[in-house]
Structure formats: structure tokens, C-alpha cells
């Protein structure tokens, strides 16, 4: 029965929560509060800036000219300074951590030499950058032990299985769940006061090679662990961040913004699509699958009531519009047929051609005439798309005019069910029109979660503020 399950809170601490003595003290403050009422599983990122340092180390190791020993020294020094700041030299944890650090730094040095000898490869890259989380995980667990908590650590390559798309590996959820049940669950279940720390960001392939989940991947690690434990615990995830949560507009563009308190996974995914990078985008997919609620909270103010809760259900606030968002730099391609030949038959060829060439299509706009097709692409892809279309067998000069407009932006209003709500489109048209903003095309997501207007780039900022005032106002 649902209610008889023990509760488990999975907390992810990002790099900004792991930078100095104060941040470690803050982590214990948070833990102290939660451990009274729930089991805790902690997912750790590398300490702040460390992944970038490791990437630099890898890249420089690939080149003959650099002596990378200095960089390894820097990596060592950053860690040892932190160790000295947070651990007491008289405690066992200090010696254990220093020894662990030294062993791993030695391994890194060896790896650097190996990289100089062999050709650079994606799997060695992943191995190198995973050291950030390997070290921070051990450090945090030992720190908690030194503060009187019961803590274990486990390295994520033992429990997260991925494909072998190194650098951006995808989790294999079913296999991972089996590993989690075998190796992590018994530790969590044995003692409710035992705080288990797991390294974020990486897993391993079926050949036991370390594989990373892409930048910011520790969010995804937390989601994966929650997925694997969803039917043995009543789980909740808390992502501790350097922001309060999701905002309803981009503060760099909008004059007013406010915090979104409740949002569904579907809506949050829509925001991620439009460039709101609060969480790793895939982590929303995994959370949605497991139906586990999560919170994004501000690390510096853990007691604050201002945070975002993300749930499966759509919580309908008084306003249906959750956010106003935009993609500022886009290009819009219009293909026109010269003849009466409808384009519809070739649409699938067109989109598979673009798909095969890794062109991301940001929107497709319907027009009433069948003789033209309009779609949006990333600005950087404009040239590539132009060449692809002009060289394609399918599209000869006789059939088409190809027009690419480089100066456009997309603005969107987001909220679940907006397409069923009469008046939204009208209000977008009126408010933009009254402010002399010309709409070049409209598009709607198949998801029914957004209504999108394509406008000239010079109007982008203004359009966001106009729509914000019209739909949100506060
Ligand atoms: N340390 C990794 C990164 O900086 C993963 C993470 O922070 O989530 O991308
Ligand atoms: Mg990070």
C-alpha cells in the first residue's frame, strides 16, 4: 500500500553548493532538518568549477605542448584546501580523505600521460571528467561522518547503466533499476539514519566504462535514482540550486518576473525547450516517467517558502498562463512551390532530410495554402539548411523558392490546456498588434502547452513585456 512505504528524500547538491567551508556547513544544516523525518539519499556534483578544470586537463593532455602536471597540482590543491578547511586533522576521516585524494590524483596523472600516447577518445574523456564527482562524493560522505552522521558512499558507475554515447550518455532505466535494487536499496533500507551519498553526472556502460550524462548531468542522476527506487520508497527529489526555482519569464529580458510555485512536468519541459535551463532537460522526462514530485530550492535560503514544486498533475493556479518565454535568435525558412503541386507529399521528405542532418526544427507553422511550408531553425543552422535544400534531389529550382529570414524571434505563452481555452490566441494578437508588433507566423506545439508567435527580432524584448503584462501582470 502506498501509505505504508517509507519516505525517501533524494537531494541533489550542485557545484555551487560545494565550494567552501560555509557551503558544507549549510549542507549539514539542511540535512539536520530533514533527517528527523525521512531517509536521505544525496547526489553530489563536483565541487564548483572542477568539471571545467578536468575538461581543460583532458584537452591539454591531448596536445604535445603542454605539461599537465601543473594542472593536476591545481586540482589537488583546490581539493586539499577544502579538506583542510572542513575536516579535523585529528579525525580518521581526514587521513582517509587525503589518502583517497592522493590515490586519485596519481591516477589522473597517469591518465594524462596515457592520453598523450594514445589518440584522444570519448571514453577516456568521460573517465577523466568523472573524477570531479568521484572526489566530491567521497569527501561529502566523510565530512558527514566526521560531523557525527552515519554515512556511506557509493560510486554511480556501480548502479547507473547507460548506453555508450560517451559525453551525453542516456540511462538504460530498466537495467539501472535492477542494479539499484541490488546494490543501493539494501544499504538504504538497512538503517534509516544512514545517509547514502552517490556521485552524480556519470554511470557506466555494459563494458564497465565510465560514461557521463552531459553537462549538468547530476540532476539527471538524481532523477534516475528516484526512478529505480520509486516502488520501494515514497520518493521526493529536492534539487538545491543557486536560484529559487523556475521564473515565469527570463529576468534578462522581462521587466517583471515572479517565481512559479507549482508546475507540471509537461509544462516544465516546455520551459526547458524554450531555453530555461534550471534543470537538465532529460531529468524532467525521467521524473515524469516515475511520477515522482520534486522541488527546486534555493540553497542559501533552505527555510524559504519560495520554491518551485514540480508534479505530475497540473496544478491549475488562478491563471492558466504559467510563463512567457522566447527564443531570441532564430531563422525562419519558407519553401514555396511555383506550381500548383501541393507540398504536403514532400513534407515528410523535407523533414527527414533535415533530421538526418541533425537540424533541429524549432517550430512548424501551418499556412492555409498548401503551396508553402514555413519552419523555424536555429540561427546557426541557416547556412547549412540553405545548402542542404538547394542541393537536394527532391527540391529543384522549378518547384521552390527558398526564403530564409535570419532576423526573427519566437515568443510563446505557456500553460497546460491553453489551446482549449478560448481567447488566448486573440489576446496574443491584440496585445502585440496594439503595440505595433507584427506577427509573421504563428505556431502551436502539438503538446497543447504553448501558443507561439513569430516576430521580427527587434521586437522580441518588447513583445515579452507586452505579453507578460497582458497575461500575468503581477
Ligand atoms: N559536474 C558536472 C558539470 O559541471 C555535472 C553537474 O554539475 O551536474 O556539468
Ligand atoms: Mg556543475
Low-confidence stretches: none
Mean pLDDT figure: 91
CATH class of the largest domain: Alpha Beta
H/E element string? EHEHHHHHEHEEEHEEHHEEEHEEHEHEEH
Oligomer: single chain
| Number of DSSP helical runs | 14
Beta-strand content bin: 15-25%
**What is the count of distinct domains?**
2
Radius of gyration: 25 Å
Q: List all distinct small molecules, including ions and cofactors, that are bound in this structure.
A: aspartic acid, magnesium ion
CATH architecture of the largest domain: 3-Layer(aba) Sandwich
Could you name the CATH homologous superfamily of the largest domain? Acetylglutamate kinase-like
What is the share of helical residues? Answer: 40-55%
What is the global morphology? globular
Task: From the 3D structure, determine the CATH topology of the largest domain.
Answer: Carbamate kinase
Number of strands: 16
Structural class by sheet pairing and helices: alpha/beta
As laid out across the biggest beta sheet, the strand order is 3-4-2-1-7-9-10-8
Give the end-to-end Cα distance, rounded to a whole number of Å: 42 Å
Main beta-sheet annotation:
8 strands, mixed
What does this structure look like?
The protein has helices at residues 21-35, 50-62, 69-86, 92-117, 122-129, 131-146, 173-190, 218-229, 265-273, 281-290, 344-356, 382-391, 424-434, 460-471, and strands at 7-13, 39-44, 150-154, 194-199, 202-204, 210-212, 234-241, 262-264, 294-298, 308-311, 323-337, 361-365, 372-378, 400-414, 439-444, 450-456. By secondary structure, it is α/β, with parallel strands linked by helices. The chain has two domains: 2-241, Carbamate kinase (3-Layer(aba) Sandwich), CATH 3.40.1160; 323-471, VC0802-like. The strands form three sheets. It has an eight-stranded mixed sheet with strand order 3-4-2-1-7-9-10-8, with helices on both faces. β12 (361-365) and β13 form a beta hairpin. The radius of gyration is 25 Å and the shape is globular. The structure holds aspartic acid and magnesium ion.
Amino acid at each position: 500500500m502506498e501509505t505504508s512505504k517509507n519516505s525517501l528524500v533524494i537531494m541533489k547538491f550542485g557545484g555551487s553548493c560545494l565550494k567552501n567551508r560555509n557551503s558544507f556547513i549549510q549542507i549539514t544544516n539542511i540535512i539536520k532538518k530533514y533527517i528527523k523525518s525521512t531517509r536521505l539519499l544525496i547526489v553530489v556534483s563536483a565541487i564548483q568549477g572542477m568539471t571545467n578544470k578536468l575538461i581543460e586537463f583532458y584537452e591539454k593532455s591531448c596536445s604535445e605542448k603542454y605539461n599537465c602536471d601543473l594542472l593536476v597540482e591545481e586540482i589537488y590543491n583546490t581539493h586539499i584546501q577544502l579538506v583542510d578547511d572542513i575536516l579535523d586533522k585529528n579525525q580518521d576521516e581526514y587521513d582517509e580523505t587525503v589518502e583517497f585524494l592522493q590515490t586519485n590524483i596519481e591516477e589522473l596523472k597517469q591518465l594524462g600521460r596515457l592520453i598523450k600516447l594514445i589518440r584522444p577518445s570519448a571514453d577516456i574523456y568521460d573517465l577523466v571528467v568523472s573524477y570531479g564527482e568521484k572526489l566530491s562524493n567521497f569527501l561529502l560522505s566523510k565530512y558527514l561522518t566526521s560531523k557525527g552522521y552515519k554515512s556511506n558512499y557509493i560510486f554511480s558507475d556501480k548502479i547507473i547503466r547507460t548506453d555508450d554515447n560517451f559525453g551525453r550518455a542516456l540511462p538504460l532505466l530498466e537495467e539501472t533499476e535492477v542494479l539499484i535494487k541490488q546494490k543501493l536499496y539494501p544499504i538504504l533500507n538497512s538503517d534509516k539514519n544512514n545517509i547514502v551519498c552517490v556521485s552524480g553526472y556519470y554511470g557506466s556502460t555494459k563494458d564497465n566504462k565510465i560514461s557521463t550524462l552531459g553537462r549538468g548531468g547530476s540532476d539527471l542522476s538524481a532523477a534516475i535514482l528516484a526512478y529505480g527506487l520509486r516502488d520501494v520508497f515514497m520518493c521526493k527529489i529536492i534539487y538545491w540550486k543557486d536560484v529559487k526555482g523556475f521564473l515565469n519569464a527570463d529576468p534578462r529580458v522581462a521587466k517583471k518576473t515572479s517565481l512559479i510555485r507549482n508546475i507540471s512536468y509537461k509544462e516544465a519541459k516546455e520551459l526547458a525547450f524554450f531555453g530555461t535551463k534550471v534543470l537538465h532537460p532529460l531529468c524532467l522526462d525521467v521524473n515524469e516517467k516515475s511520477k515522482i514530485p520534486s522541488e527546486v530550492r534555493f540553497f542559501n535560503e533552505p527555510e524559504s517558502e519560495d520554491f518551485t514544486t514540480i508534479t505530475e498533475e497540473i496544478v491549475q493556479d488562478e491563471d492558466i498562463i504559467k510563463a512567457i518565454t522566447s527564443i531570441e535568435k532564430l531563422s525562419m525558412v519558407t519553401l514555396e512551390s511555383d506550381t500548383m503541386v501541393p507540398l504536403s507529399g514532400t513534407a515528410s521528405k523535407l523533414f527527414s532530410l533535415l533530421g538526418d542532418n541533425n537540424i533541429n526544427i524549432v517550430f512548424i507553422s501551418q499556412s492555409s495554402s498548401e503551396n508553402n511550408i514555413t519552419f523555424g531553425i536555429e540561427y546557426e543552422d541557416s547556412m547549412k539548411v540553405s545548402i542542404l535544400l538547394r542541393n537536394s534531389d527532391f527540391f529543384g529550382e522549378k518547384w521552390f523558392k527558398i526564403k530564409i529570414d535570419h532576423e526573427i524571434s519566437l515568443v510563446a505563452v505557456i500553460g497546460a490546456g491553453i489551446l482549449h481555452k478560448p481567447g488566448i490566441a486573440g489576446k496574443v494578437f491584440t496585445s502585440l498588434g496594439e503595440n505595433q508588433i507584427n506577427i509573421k507566423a504563428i505556431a502551436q506545439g502539438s503538446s497543447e502547452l504553448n501558443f507561439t508567435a513569430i516576430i521580427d527580432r527587434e521586437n522580441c524584448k518588447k513583445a515579452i513585456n507586452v505579453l507578460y503584462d497582458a497575461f500575468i501582470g503581477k
